[in-house]
Amino acid sequence: MTQVNCCLKWLLTIFNIIFAIVGIIIIVVTLNSQFTYANGALALDVHTFRKPELYIVGSIIMVIAILGAVGAYRESKACMILFLVCMILGSIVMLLPGTLLAVIRPQVASMQEETYRGYLPLDKAPADKRHEVDSMQREMQCCGLFSYKDWEGNIPDSCLCNKLEEMEGKCQTVDYRGLLQGVVQQKKSVYIQACFPIVSFSTLLLFDVVMGTFFTLAVLGLLGMVLSSIMIHQLRNPNRPVGVLMSVPAYFNQPPPKYEELQNIVPSTN
Predict the structure, then answer these.
(1) Domain total of the chain
(2) Which of 66, 77, 193, 208 could pair with 142 as two cysteines, CB 3.0-4.6 Å apart?
(3) Tell me, what's the pLDDT at 98?
């Protein structure tokens, strides 16, 4: 087995353990996450980040991490070269979508609002859109996309509050007088919060999480490239020191001067 710096070997092994943990976290989060509200009512369909794709990403990360750990432990040049290639490709693959999401993020809220404005008035919207908003209201305890007035008086039961929610201050009493061609309606207690601000916040949060994941993986890939490159260099040149961090300066390895040498250096006082 080729002699490799022990610190580098353990550092690369720990790095791959952390890398494997990241892959496991992605898989676990995918199992428990819900990317949409109201049966896919988001204007930007977050099903773009489909669960099967995240399973594949997490699995690939774990396989690469195992490859790097085995290569570092066994000091295998072939495994480390393959690991380096995977790190280069992986960094590029992670940077591209992360950069794309960072570019389009400022326009996400306006794109969503424009799409939702097209639903109004909700009581005259297509049946599938009304069903989506109705499901959204039940799940997030809100009423209307921008206001309860989006329903133009035909407010569904999903907007109505119960007594406990009224006591918690989540509701407002609405008088329907004049909303339906002057016909007097009974007063009802509906949710104060509109749905669009909740959906917009959730979408931006999702973008931030996905962007952060991409850029974190890209940084880990760059770190893996550096460590694997240093180890490959040591495997090819086992007797050659690699950089200041991986080698001890020569003057630390020199024996201390003898007493006679020190005595000759000290000037005479006579």
Answers:
(1) 2
(2) 193
(3) 87
